[in-house]
Amino acid sequence: MKLAVIGAGSIGGWVIAALARDGLGPAAVIVRGSAPSGLHAVRSVAELPPGVTHLVDCAGHAGLAAHGPAALAAGIDVITLSLGALADEGLARDLAEAAEAGGARLHLASGAIGALDALRAGAAGGLRSVRYTGRKPPKGWAGSPAEDVLDLSALTTPAAHFEGSARQAALRYPKNANVAAAVALAGLGFDQTQARLLADPTAAGNVHEVEAEGNFGSFRFEITGASLPDNPRSSALAAMSVLAEVRRLRARVTT
Prior knowledge:
Blueprint: E1 3-6, H1 10-21, E2 28-30, E3 41-42, E4 54-57, H2 60-73, E5 77-80, H3 89-102, E6 106-108, H4 116-125, E7 127-136, E8 159-165, H5 166-172, H6 178-186, E9 194-199, E10 206-214, E11 217-225, E12 227-228, E13 231-235, H7 236-250
């Protein structure tokens, strides 16, 4: 594998350092400004050095939209955390068509949630319902549409600020709903997956819950995620899932 990375922010920086420890230091980083010391900065897929096989997207929805189709059309596989971007049907179509044209694949990292393997297995045999609930401390919703619904600074008990489909959640909360998108893509899809988002002053961290029922039976999964040390809004597990996906793609035996 010869890797390049989109973005060098909190998640991108963690991933770049982790890849280097695995002997997979990126050949280039696509950034708007300068790259971290010692890394080759470029502005577009067209400027990537020859031989790049995988492009790792750590720059959010805008990064995937800007560079994903070009990479896939050039035959470069893309690994992304920006699953919520696929709620945009136009972008999802562009990515699929580019992958077909280039003979490449778009790999979806699991991000800040688990149990997606059980959800995919359940979907293979018939799912009846899937519900995702996301809880964050009020400050975790700062700068989001939650501020138009709730007085975040005055909350003393948990309060919902969104209920609807996973597609609506991903489009309305592009910086907060990648987990809802991951659950949707593993199970019933964006329109049939229900999502509920809460501001919870009692939450110890970002809490993600998945409940599913189907022919397999039922399950409930909950995880409380820690953030990266230098950014309370960035999930540590999301960054780790990128490294895990790279390792999975590189392995001869995969799970």
